[in-house]
């Protein structure tokens, strides 16, 4: 599978990081410690922090929290993300990141949640929260449910090549900036009654267009699904380029943020 991933990347430009975990024990990674602007995948962190806080307080989500968390995930609503980010605050979210043992995720400054810097390895740690049996049951079930209901036009990326009979729990980010071009990210967990759960994270930047980044991610995803599901037929093809909108997810400003983006460097060469 590692060779197939490298083959999928061989003709593609840009910077790409990959992390794959299967509950059977398989792991695969490429440049998984490189940092990227998170764009809208930061919404998974916000969701998990919200659910964890409610569990710690011994309560369910309030009506107001529910009214925000669902559109934040299902339709990538930025206003809802901003309200929850502000409500949770940096102190709580940093404590949550420490609890799940992320190593290189740095929260965006002030209200800029889309400028959170993260790595494929840390995104895998966050996905593990939703699929780990030691996590709070309510947190896992509700979080996975929301990710399985992301609207159709935002379900490109890591589901490509997924066999029939599996369910995809996915969140994507797509953000152009004046440095490093398009950030195009896709993270997902895949579950099925007769298949152990596995997770795929693909982060990228330096893409000339969103469609280019989506195609790179989907070629990698096809290789992963094929390698983990030998004997199963592929049930999901590539997203047609004509259906990929080049509109930003709006999670961060296009121009560099003084004091934050300059200089912008990867965590690894």
Give an overview in words:
The protein is an alpha+beta fold and 269 residues long. It has one domain (2-242): Beta-lactamase (3-Layer(aba) Sandwich). It is built from seven helices and seven strands, in the order αβββαααβααβββα. The chain has helices at 2-9, 42-56, 63-74, 78-99, 120-131, 137-148, 210-228; strands at 15-22, 27-30, 36-37, 117-118, 167-176, 182-192, 195-205. It has a five-stranded antiparallel sheet with strand order 2-1-7-6-5, with helices on both faces. Strands 3-4 form a two-stranded antiparallel sheet. Strand 5 and strand 6 form a beta hairpin. Helix 1 (2-9) runs antiparallel to helix 7 (210-228), helix 2 packs across helix 4 (78-99) and helix 3 crosses helix 4. Residues 264-269 have low confidence and may be disordered.
Largest β-sheet summary: 5 strands, antiparallel
CATH topology: Beta-lactamase
Q: How helical, in percent, are the residues?
A: 25-40%
Summarize the helix and strand pattern as letters: HEEEHHHEHHEEEH
Number of domains: 1
CATH architecture designation: 3-Layer(aba) Sandwich
What is the helix tally? 7
Radius of gyration: 17 Å
Q: Going across the major beta sheet, what is the strand order?
A: 2-1-7-6-5
| Overall 3D form | globular
Which spans have pLDDT < 50 for at least 5 consecutive residues?
Answer: 264-269
Helix and strand content put the structural class at alpha+beta
User: What's the name of the CATH homologous superfamily?
Assistant: DD-peptidase/beta-lactamase superfamily
End-to-end C-alpha gap: 23 Å
């Amino acid at each position: 599978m590692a060779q197939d991933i490298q083959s999928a990347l061989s003709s593609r430009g840009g910077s790409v990081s990959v992390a794959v975990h299967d509950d059977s024990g398989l792991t695969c990674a490429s440049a998984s410690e490189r940092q990227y602007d998170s764009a809208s995948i930061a919404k998974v962190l916000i969701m998990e922090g919200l659910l964890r806080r409610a569990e710690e307080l011994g309560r369910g989500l309030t009506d107001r929290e529910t009214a925000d968390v669902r559109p934040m995930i299902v339709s990538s609503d930025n206003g809802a993300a901003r309200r929850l980010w502000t409500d949770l605050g940096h102190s709580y979210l940093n404590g949550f990141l420490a609890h799940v043992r992320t190593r290189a995720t740095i929260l965006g400054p002030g209200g800029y949640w889309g400028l959170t810097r993260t790595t494929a390895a840390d995104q895998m740690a966050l996905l593990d929260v939703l699929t780990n049996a030691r996590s709070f049951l309510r947190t896992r079930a509700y979080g996975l449910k929301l990710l399985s209901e992301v609207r159709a036009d935002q379900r490109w990326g890591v589901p490509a090549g997924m066999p029939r009979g599996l369910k995809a729990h996915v969140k994507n980010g797509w953000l152009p900036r004046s440095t490093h071009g398009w950030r195009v990210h896709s993270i997902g967990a895949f579950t099925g009654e007769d298949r152990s759960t596995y997770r795929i994270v693909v982060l990228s930047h330096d893409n000339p267009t969103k469609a280019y980044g989506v195609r790179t991610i989907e070629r990698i995803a096809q290789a992963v699904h094929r390698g983990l599901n030998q004997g199963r037929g592929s049930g999901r093809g590539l997203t047609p380029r004509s259906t990929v909108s080049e509109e930003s997810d709006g999670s961060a400003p296009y121009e560099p943020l003084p004091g934050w983006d300059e200089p912008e460097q990867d965590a690894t060469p």
